């Protein structure tokens, strides 16, 4: 975006593109280019944040990855990612290569292996917005709004919605201006936008997020998660090394103090970390499909290996009891927040690997299996709605649809999380716990709720954690299956 085209533009030196057949060296060069660009912007911002408007603009560009193949040679058909489907030129802009180093090395490595052609690393034609450059530099002081003597966009590039969208994952994108096709599901600006939003909504830095994400809709689960984390930190064989609480408070010992902030963010988030990122993140998204969409929209850019919903629901069958579990194998989407991005006629299939892990986790924790497991777990359709007080309206319409869909449970988040998992190619699953039965006159009362939460929350959370641990042991190519990929896909996961 050039607000003042009459001003001359100052930029850092633009090195020539380099070709690589080594993924680690390619990523190292990405880091070098990105650091050069962001350092230039931070220095210029700090130098001109006070005083009159400069007589020139300052601009730096994101680095990019480019690969060109001329062969229709078939890649390993068992692999759902890591290769392009047709000959052509493919590109993606890159941000925070330091944060995404392991991901980039693995994805570039697969490209090199599958196509036997080098990747080219160079400077793109997409400017880095100054907001995102200074965001990650603790040495830069950002003034309060209105403190500068001139509009920021007069001198620096600002976020551009033309490159900050979900066109690629939604399947509505066109070739880039130079004719190349998308190599990755998100542009650099889209990733930067979400990284900034994550820090805002969760009050934890993106660096802390782990590859396995649990979503819940009640704060009750947080204390249980912290207690479990302390058990793991006390066990040197657990593989977990630290626990991060809201506000980026990190502890490494089981008995270490972990103060809680007086004010929680919109989506309190906690991380039980492993050195390889294979730990578990718990996000309390609160109640409602809008929050569920917001959280998953932004966490998706981190390319997690799986996310699961472990929350509360209304049981719809008279044979269910409070505290029973519901394993979703399909979803009735009446949440509406994703209708424009993912039409309701798109099926959201159950993922066998996740379903098996969740069922086995229930069996492991409850010590029930086979036919006995049916005493406390029902598998079926979960309906997600956007009206928490649907019972107060004419029930004939909703109840009829719930019956026709064979729904066994009702909540306000699960279908949204699953649908966004499908849309973003992130493996998903849902295990809910019945907390009331509105169709049968069993509403939550204070005494019932206390007993229910005391006895069930810990067990439910441990089931979700156990399922994630089983998913963690699966090969990446197994959990990221072809069920989540279309016939025209980006090579990057």
Features:
amp nucleosidase, domain 1; alpha/beta; 493 residues; Rossmann fold; five-stranded mixed beta barrel
> How many domain regions?
2
Oligomer: single chain
Give the CA-based shape.
globular
Can you tell me the CATH superfamily of the largest domain? Nucleoside phosphorylase domain
Counted beta strands? 18
Number of helices: 12
The proportion of residues forming helix, as a percent range, comes to 25-40%
Mean pLDDT: 89
Describe the largest sheet. Answer: 5 strands, mixed
What is the succession of H and E elements? EEHEEEHEHHEHEHEEEEHEEEHEHEHEHH
In the CATH classification, which architecture of the largest domain applies? 3-Layer(aba) Sandwich
């Amino acid at each position: 975006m050039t607000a003042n085209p009459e001003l001359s533009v100052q930029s850092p030196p633009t090195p020539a593109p380099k070709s690589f057949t080594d993924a680690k060296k390619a990523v190292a060069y990405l880091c070098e280019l990105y650091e050069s660009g962001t350092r230039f912007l931070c220095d210029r911002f700090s130098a001109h944040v006070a005083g009159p408007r400069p007589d020139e603009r300052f601009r730096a560009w994101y680095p990019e990855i480019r690969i060109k193949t001329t062969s229709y040679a078939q890649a390993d058909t068992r692999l759902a990612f890591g290769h392009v489907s047709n000959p052509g030129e493919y590109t993606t802009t890159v941000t925070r290569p330091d944060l995404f180093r392991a991901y980039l090395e693995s994805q570039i490595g697969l490209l090199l292996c599958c196509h036997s052609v080098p990747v080219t690393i160079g400077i793109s034609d997409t400017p880095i917005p100054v907001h995102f450059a200074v965001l990650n530099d603790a040495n830069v002081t950002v003034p309060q709004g209105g403190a500068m003597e001139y509009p920021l966009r007069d001198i620096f590039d600002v976020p551009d919605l033309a490159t900050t969208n979900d066109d690629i994952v939604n399947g509505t994108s066109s070739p880039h201006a130079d004719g190349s096709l998308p190599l990755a599901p998100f542009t650099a600006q889209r990733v930067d936008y979400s990284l900034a939003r994550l820090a805002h909504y969760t009050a934890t830095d993106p660096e802390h997020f782990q590859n396995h994400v649990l979503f819940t809709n009640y704060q009750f689960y947080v204390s249980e998660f912290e207690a479990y984390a302390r058990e793991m930190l006390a066990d040197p064989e657990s593989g977990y090394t630290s626990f991060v609480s809201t506000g980026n408070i990190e502890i490494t010992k089981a008995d270490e103090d972990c103060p809680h902030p007086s004010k929680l963010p919109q989506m309190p988030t906690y991380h039980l970390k492993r050195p390889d990122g294979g730990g578990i993140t718990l996000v309390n998204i609160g109640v409602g499909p809008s929050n569920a969409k917001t959280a998953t929209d932004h966490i998706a850019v981190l390319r997690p290996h799986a996310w699961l919903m472990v929350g509360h629901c209304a049981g719809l069958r008279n044979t269910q009891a409070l505290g029973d579990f519901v394993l979703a194998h399909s979803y009735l989407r009446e949440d509406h927040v994703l209708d424009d991005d993912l039409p309701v006629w798109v099926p959201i299939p159950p993922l066998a690997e996740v379903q098996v892990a969740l069922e086995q986790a229930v069996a492991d924790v409850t010590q029930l299996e086979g036919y006995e497991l049916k005493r406390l777990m029902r598998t079926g359709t979960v309906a997600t709605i956007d009206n928490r007080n649907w019972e107060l309206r004419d029930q004939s319409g909703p109840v009829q649809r719930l019956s026709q869909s064979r729904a066994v449970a009702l909540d306000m988040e699960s279908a949204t999380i699953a649908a966004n998992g499908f849309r973003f190619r992130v493996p998903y699953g849902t295990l809910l716990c019945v907390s009331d039965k509105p169709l049968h006159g069993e509403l939550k009362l204070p005494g019932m709720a206390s007993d229910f939460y005391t006895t069930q929350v810990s067990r439910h959370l441990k089931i979700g954690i156990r399922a994630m641990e089983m998913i963690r042991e699966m090969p990446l190519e197994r959990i990221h299956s072809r069920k989540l990929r279309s016939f025209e896909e980006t090579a990057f996961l």
